[in-house]
Amino acid sequence: MSDKKPSVHTVPDRDGGWNNKQEGKVISHADTKAEAQKLGREKAIKDTTEHVIHNKDGKISESNSYGHDPYPPKG
């Protein structure tokens, strides 16, 4: 069993602003995407996991891994 923490997703909030979610739960909120990205990155680094950033339309625009990626990568 892996003890890897779930990814952090920076997503638009339908009521305005931006949320960071982990396992579908809001873990932080910010008025701007830039501030939300900063908070999400800090949490992903702390949890050594992936930070997935979405656009306003919900599509993934960027993804950064702060985990223990294998080197060289498999595949």
- Relative helix content: 10-25%
Number of strands: 5
Strand proportion, as a percent range, falls in 35-45%
Low-confidence stretches: none
Strand order of the largest sheet: 3-2-1-4-5
Query: What's the number of helices?
Result: 1
The computed structural class is alpha+beta
Whole-angstrom Rg: 13 Å
Distance between the termini: 22 Å
Shape: elongated
Classify the oligomer: single chain
Major sheet summary line: 5 strands, mixed
Element-level helix/strand string: EEEHEE
Task: Give a nutshell description of this structure.
This protein is an alpha+beta fold.
Features:
single chain; 75 residues; alpha+beta; 5-stranded mixed sheet; 1 helix
Q: What does the model show?
A:
The protein is α+β, with helices and mostly antiparallel strands and 75 residues long. Helices cover 20% and strands 36% of the residues. The chain has a domain at 8-59. It is built from one helix and five strands. Strands 3-2-1-4-5 form a five-stranded mixed beta sheet, covered by helices on one side. The chain starts with 7 loop residues before the first strand and ends in a 10-residue tail after the last strand.
